[in-house]
Amino acid sequence: MVTTITVPSRVERLAGSGIERIPKEYIRPEEERPSIGDIFAEEKMGGGPQVPTVDLKGINSEDLEVREKCREELRKAAVDWGVMHLVNHGIPEELTGRVKAAGEGFFGQPIEEKEKYANDQAAGNVQGYGSKLANNASGQLEWEDYFFHCVFPEDKTDLSIWPKTPSDYIAATREYAKQLRALTTTVLAVLSLGLGLEEGRLEKEVGGMEELLLQMKINYYPKCPQPELALGVEAHTDVSALTFILHNMVPGLQLFYEGKWVTAKCVPNSIIMHVGDTVEILSNGKYKSILHRGVVNREKVRVSWAVFCEPPKEKIILQPLPETVSEADPPRFPPRTFAQHIKHKLFRQTDQEAADTPKPDE
């Protein structure tokens, strides 16, 4: 008996085939469509709320006033929005430029070359080159391909699945992950102090230097002939502790703020940072994990580099820290492992169902 292996259809191939109408699997439900507009027009619009920009230049200043002002701006953005543009973040523009060039170089290759790195989601192997499978209730697909892999700590990375082309991919990505990990420590320290905790507390609660995983997902959003009907990434909150995003200066990120979708403007030399569910839970909702989505367009390819800082799946129980809970503000989240939280979100499973579900290695 011959087993036929079906290679998932790549969105890039679909986009390049000359179609004028997108397949029905990519069309969003009718109730969602009125909110999807022209991303370029929306980015240019003045007025209305704007994603905050936080200048980190003074975050460790010896001048107490400068340092406290910077830290308060970061804390306030995490409370009000849960997302911000970080500028003067300390990661050299030369390095972020190399990371972008490496990712764009990988996606610039023929699809046949990229397929050598294809993942096998059905077998539970999510690292590598992929496209979303229809695993949500509506069977909906997203207008993107991606490359996903663990980038830190180094002893938990698998270099055998990292792209060999371009030749700078591994060196640039490794150095960026290392510097981003240091920035993660700085941000978590400020958020800890903002909760009245010791500065190392949140870092410890999410696994510390040994256990906190940095997972990179390069999102590749091809041009779309009917962008008003599709989404690059559907509305979601990040399960991570923090998420850091670089992009190629093509707008596409939208945040659901005060009941409306707000388009993030492109800020040169910034890194976008999201507070994820993990920190929202630990802070008992004092820091926000904001609902967001990715919009596509018919004129330009958009590429983004998202790094998710994730706690270990089973070793830590995520729940509001005792110091964040009071009689007036009881716990808003039940205790769960990170793995249970993911299953609860993705599959709406109860905690008992999540515990009973076999893991890929069982």
UniProtKB/TrEMBL annotation:
Entries under PROSITE patterns matching the protein: FE2OG_OXY
Family matches, as InterPro entries: DIOX_N (IPR026992), IPNS-like_FE2OG_OXY (IPR044861), IPNS-like_sf (IPR027443), Oxoglu/Fe-dep_dioxygenase_dom (IPR005123), Plant_2OG-oxidoreductases (IPR050295)
Pfam families: 2OG-FeII_Oxy (PF03171), DIOX_N (PF14226)
A GO term for molecular function: 2-oxoglutarate-dependent dioxygenase activity
Keyword Oxidoreductase listed: yes
Catalytic activity line of the entry: (E)-feruloyl-CoA + 2-oxoglutarate + O2 = (E)-6-hydroxyferuloyl-CoA + succinate + CO2
Keywords: Dioxygenase, Flavonoid biosynthesis, Iron, Metal-binding, Oxidoreductase, Vitamin C
Pathway(s) where this gene product acts: Phenylpropanoid metabolism
Residue ranges constituting the Fe2OG dioxygenase domain according to the UniProt record: 212-311
EC number(s) recorded for this UniProt protein: 1.14.11.61
Record-level GO BP terms: coumarin biosynthetic process; flavonoid biosynthetic process; pigment biosynthetic process; response to molecule of fungal origin
Family under the similarity heading: Belongs to the iron/ascorbate-dependent oxidoreductase family.
PANTHER family: OXOGLUTARATE/IRON-DEPENDENT DIOXYGENASE
Annotated protein name in UniProt: feruloyl-CoA 6-hydroxylase
